[in-house]
Amino acid sequence: MLTEERHQAILQLLKQQDVVKMQSLCQLLNASESTVRRDLQLLEEQGLATRIHGGAKRINTLQEELGQIEKNGKNVHEKNAIAKFAAAQIQQGCVIYLDAGTTTQAIIPYLRPEMNLTVVTNGVDTASLLADHQIQTFLLGGRVKSKTKAMVGAAALETLLQFQFNQAILGTNGIDVEAGLTTPDPEEATLKRFAIQQANQTMVLADHTKFDAVSFSKFAPLAQVQLITDQLSPSVYKHYHSHTEIQEVLS
């Protein structure tokens, strides 16, 4: 395989997975580790990828935001494992704020009508799925974002502030020790920030690809939430564990 072909294959895989391991790249490209390392170095120098320990990571712009269809195919097993664990933390009769997003949406199949829950959400698709599962649901008002089907804006915030929650269950685009929890859209960041304020407890559901990533708008420091994620590398876990509560879930 020619150098340019290897580079295109690496970038295509990063587009699908965000993070790829060296072993996977060597197998995919049928190339030695030294060859792949040189490829990754060149891609990093061109600003197309970031080398990390044991592999590479896709470069995202601060305001880049994927749509629902693009998100649905990413890290499905990890999201389901995280969602199943989070659902087990919800007690009967609770009032929940459930953020729009594919990781938070994955929790819905694990919620049962007999749990007698009340769920408030800013996700149009999320509200529809909750109703299909016979969960009492309130959808925030406001403007609908076409890309993510999330309700945002002043009307959404005004509705949100009418409620108090036992738990807020949120997603995030970035997790970083210094930058905290971030998301591309300032309006969504505002809703997340006030949902945390209105809740007794907040769980942020995020797979391993969201760590060491920073997006445009900060909505909370790490210490303000509990992170539910899939298995992290020992170095990443150690780096973040001293700053917040982390629960790892095997996928």
UniProtKB/TrEMBL annotation:
<dbReference type="InterPro" id="IPR014036">
    <property type="entry name" value="DeoR-like_C"/>
</dbReference>
<dbReference type="InterPro" id="IPR001034">
    <property type="entry name" value="DeoR_HTH"/>
</dbReference>
<dbReference type="InterPro" id="IPR050313">
    <property type="entry name" value="Carb_Metab_HTH_regulators"/>
</dbReference>
<dbReference type="InterPro" id="IPR018356">
    <property type="entry name" value="Tscrpt_reg_HTH_DeoR_CS"/>
</dbReference>
<keyword id="KW-0804">Transcription</keyword>
<dbReference type="GO" id="GO:0003677">
    <property type="term" value="F:DNA binding"/>
</dbReference>
<dbReference type="InterPro" id="IPR036388">
    <property type="entry name" value="WH-like_DNA-bd_sf"/>
</dbReference>
<feature type="domain" description="HTH deoR-type">
    <location>
        <begin position="3"/>
        <end position="58"/>
    </location>
</feature>
<dbReference type="InterPro" id="IPR036390">
    <property type="entry name" value="WH_DNA-bd_sf"/>
</dbReference>
<dbReference type="Pfam" id="PF08220">
    <property type="entry name" value="HTH_DeoR"/>
</dbReference>
<protein>
    <submittedName>
        <fullName>Bacterial regulatory s, gntR family protein</fullName>
    </submittedName>
</protein>
<dbReference type="Pfam" id="PF00455">
    <property type="entry name" value="DeoRC"/>
</dbReference>
<dbReference type="GO" id="GO:0003700">
    <property type="term" value="F:DNA-binding transcription factor activity"/>
</dbReference>
<keyword id="KW-0238">DNA-binding</keyword>
<dbReference type="InterPro" id="IPR037171">
    <property type="entry name" value="NagB/RpiA_transferase-like"/>
</dbReference>
<keyword id="KW-0805">Transcription regulation</keyword>
